[in-house]
Amino acid sequence: MRLISLIFGTLLLSGCDKFSEIGITEICEQYPQMCEDLNSDAWCRAEKSKIIKNRYNNLKQPSDGWKYELLLNFEEYKQCIAKASQIEHIKLKEKKSGRVAGLITADKELRKLARDTQESKDPRLLYYHWSRFGSEEHLKEFLAYRDSELLESPEMQIALATYYVKNDREKTIQTLYHALELYRANDEIDSEIFNSLTSIFVKLEDYPKAFIWGYIAREFKVEKLDLSQIEALVRQTGGNIGALEDTADDYVDAIKSGEFRAPN
Description:
- This protein is 62% helix and 0% strand.
- It contains twelve helices and no strands.
- It has helices spanning 24-30, 45-60, 64-84, 93-116, 123-133, 136-143, 154-164, 169-182, 192-203, 207-219, 227-236, 241-256.
- Residues 1-18 have low confidence and may be disordered.
């Protein structure tokens, strides 16, 4: 599961704290060290921009929050630049060497940020160290926050669900529902929620609910899910596809408007 910007409590990265209104070009002119170790060609432009902005943010207001963002930024950049570094540029071979340098930077920065945040008590970073490195101690500290307001964000509820999914499907379902309840209108929804709910209900052989969440996944442009097989299973058991589609449409409207409530 991809985890995007996490917001909670005193760790809030609010609009007034964001220094990155300054442009990328201006940052690179004033602080060339924030840009020079990344590839200089057009590859991975969006990923580079995030890194440069959050390097600048962390310079202006150092925090575990910005370090967490940078960890995610460098993971995305590494994935992109690793692919780009395999591509030969016919006329300008040095462009490939620049991409390789960017890949080396990503590895180095990820190791450094992991070391720098190893002792952090920020729940985001506790989850990161467990999910990336399997640290049971970090997991234990993360779970201590499970009833805290600090985990009252969609992203942290999804993080909790990745723990529950191993041994408690019902708890996983309720946690994913709660994640959806926490989204507000116009938020970017993590569509892995819909994949996960569909998969869980298939495993539970609750095909009507699997169909509902698979239908919702399709409405949110999830492409890797085959709804036709689930529909066939629903029809075999006498399910009413039209009624299920109506329910799914109601859920879609509620999710998009930030008014979703977990079904009974």
